[in-house]
Amino acid sequence: MRILISNDDGYFSPGIAALAQSVTDLADVTVVAPERDRSGASNSLTLDRPLSLHEAANGFYFVNGTPTDCVHLAVTGMVEHVPDMVLSGINLGANMGDDTIYSGTVAAATEGFLLGVPAMAISLVSKEGHHLDTAARMARTLVQHFQARPFGAAVLLNVNVPDIPYERIKGIRVTRLGRRHKAEPVVRQINPRGDTVYWVGAAGKAADAGEGTDFQAVANDYVSVTPLQIDLTHGAQIGVVQEWLR
Ligand code: MN
């Protein structure tokens, strides 16, 4: 089995090293990741300049592009064989609910999925990352499950792992995405040159953390696994919009 690993925190992130380490004896592993932190890059491709690929001392490859660029160039030409699976992460920070729209972690997995490769995005639900090993063990368990029972179709799984010791994880729940309240306002500051600058504010708190959501699962010490699709069509509104345009 061949596994391609990427992320959005950058090739130097402890999360990607933990992920690669967790599956190294299960598969041929190739790591291709952004050269710097591209969290929040979403599904962006770099089209206005060429991309460079370099190999770090530890064998990881890094690219001066986005998470999507990394997986795109790896799957469509850089690696000799199309991988059997794309893993993205382990992200330091949750990717739940609306986060998935902005997430570079989810985007790297999505690019694999769009290119026909089963893919999994793995995020640890805290920026501090006290228990990266918990997420790494879960990733390994899920890859082993995939090896034992191939899914049979392209699949895109969004995995969020509570930042707690492995022994305290209660199990795995298959969830739907929750929703966040709208984001906090931008933070206005004056920079040392006297110019006004703006920092994008924090993500909103959970608005729908109800039964069956990713938010609820991780709040109760379960690993959340959400199957995602990419078709943004609002099926229920097709008739409504047809009626509105008449
Ligand atoms: Mn990130």
Describe the structure.
- The protein has a single domain, classed as Survival protein SurE-like phosphatase/nucleotidase (Stationary-phase Survival Protein Sure Homolog, Chain: A), CATH 3.40.1210.10.
- Helices cover 28% and strands 25% of the residues.
- The chain has helices at residues 14-23, 67-78, 99-102, 104-114, 132-148, 214-219, 238-245, and strands at 2-6, 28-34, 53-55, 61-63, 85-92, 119-124, 156-161, 171-174, 179-180, 187-190, 196-199, 206-208, 222-227.
- It has a 9-stranded mixed beta sheet with strand order 3-4-2-1-5-6-7-13-8, with helices on both faces. A two-stranded antiparallel ribbon has the order 9-12. The chain has a two-stranded antiparallel sheet with strand order 10-11.
- Helix 1 packs parallel to helix 5 (132-148) and helix 2 (67-78) packs parallel to helix 4 (104-114).
- The longest helix has 17 residues, at 132-148.
- The radius of gyration is 19 Å and the shape is globular.
- Residues 8-9, 39, 91, 93, 104-105 line the site of manganese (II) ion.
Q: What would the keywords be for this entry?
A:
single chain, 246 residues, alpha/beta, Stationary-phase Survival Protein Sure Homolog, Chain: A, 9-stranded mixed β-sheet, two-stranded antiparallel ribbon, 7 helices, 13 strands, binds manganese (II) ion
